[in-house]
Amino acid sequence: MSTPARKRLMRDFKRLQQDPPAGISGAPQDNNIMLWNAVIFGPDDTPWDGGTFKLTLQFTEDYPNKPPTVRFVSRMFHPNIYADGSICLDILQNQWSPIYDVAAILTSIQSLLCDPNPNSPANSEAARMFSENKREYNRRVRESVEQSWTAD
Amino acid sequence: MQNQDGVQVDGEVESATSVPIPEFDEWANFGDQDIMQQHSAIRAEEAEKIPFLGDKEPLSSLAAEYQSGSAILLEKIKVLGEQYAAIRRTRGDGNCFFRSFMFSYLEHILESQDQSEVDRIKANVEQCRKTLQSLGYADFTFEDFFALFLEQLDSVLQGNEASISHDELILRSRDQSVSDYVVMFFRFVTSGEIRKRAEFFEPFILGLTNATVEQFCKSSVEPMGEESDHVHITALSDALGVPIRVVYLDRSSCDTGGVSVNHHDFIPAGSDLPNASGGSEKVSPFITLLYRPGHYDILYPK
Q1: Backbone phi and psi for residue B296, each to the nearest 5 degrees, phi listed first
Q2: Which chain A residues touch B184 with a CB distance below 8 Å?
Q3: Residue-wise pLDDT tens digits, B211-221
Q4: d(CA A147, nearest CA chain B) in Å
Q5: Nearest to B189, CA basis, from B97, B126, B120
């Protein structure tokens, strides 16, 4: 059945295939356009460099009027990412707007990796380390990078 | 803009008794997801109280609200009663300005069957589409919203198979899948206009919040539920070329003497209406909204 949400998601997918932003990839799971798998590659020349972080995006029929639920499957160490992988990012919450497509969502999450928002900590240990002990913070980030290769 | 907070606080207090909140062993586990869920539960509860769009009510129902309240307001409502016959309320969900505008405009077309106005606004809508494209918006992110608005516009014109009645227009305005899409269409149009004329709007935006034009559009125009201010109204009125009258009902009173009710007409900039050339000939708005701090409803003149 083709609903407005599904039609829109097909176009999101087409755009992501034709014009993929650097360092991200994503696609719907087989037979289910409402559930996507995605990978964000850690940006070069940052502690995240080399990481392949997996996420899922769950859409509802309210898309694009409501944001999808986005979660990291890979274990993350980041001030704005909860232990269960959910993400504290304004555009996925109260600042959502239909102008964001999947490519834009993933690009925003990618830039959040290197540019945390210390005002809304989801992981207080990571938030504290980020501001007080950058060296130890970077070490923990690189640990998560290594984990991202093996864990599945 | 802060008014909404007050409303939300009320909602939260209420929800403590009526919305079951799961127990949390640890505050840390109370994540964004839970907050959003709680937030939408509160919204849903509010929604049951007032539909997106209410029925037409006599102006006396407004006076009834303030029966035991401010004398100035009651006095002003009496003055309003000389010019206006009825009010139609909208839900206070942050989209009330856009929703009031939507219904008021479509109702006007339905009643006037003004084909030339429809042709005119369609040309403006095409211009808005080009604006968004030139600003770098991807077509597919906004085209559904444009298409839905144009569809409503065609359907209020009678004499084609898609034509709808006044009752159906009310139903659609209360149906989230239509109503929210049209609201979003207006948000796109408003944002495009503000960005296109960033230099013009910048000082007004700085007067409201400490944000850049880009930030303002991203945080206060494009997301659903963000309240509208004079910046939004000016931009929408300019972009679509539709004059809007806003009547202010607040406690302010002017010096001594009788009470008067202020209004402000938003007249589209560079109105390319054929009769605007003379200058003295005033374009008069066919949309009248009642503003009470933090909220817009629709007013019907006598």
Answers
A1: -120, 135
A2: 65, 98
A3: 999 999 999 99
A4: 24
A5: B126
Task: Split chain B (302 residues) into runs of 10 and give each run's mean pLDDT.
Answer: 40 42 53 70 73 94 87 91 96 95 98 96 98 95 95 94 94 94 97 97 91 95 94 98 95 72 90 48 85 95 93
CB proximity under 8 Å: A 21-80 to B: 64-65, 69
Best mutation target, A12, A65, A88, A97, to test chain B (most B CBs within 10 A): A97
Query: Which residues in chain B are closer than 8 Å to A101, comparing Cβ atoms?
Result: 138, 140-141
Structure ipTM = 0.83
Catalytic annotation present for A114: no
pLDDT tens digits for A46-61?
999 999 999 999 999 9
Domains of chain B: 50-301 (1.20.1300.20)
Distances (CA, A) of B28 to A37, A90, A121, B57: 27, 19, 10, 47
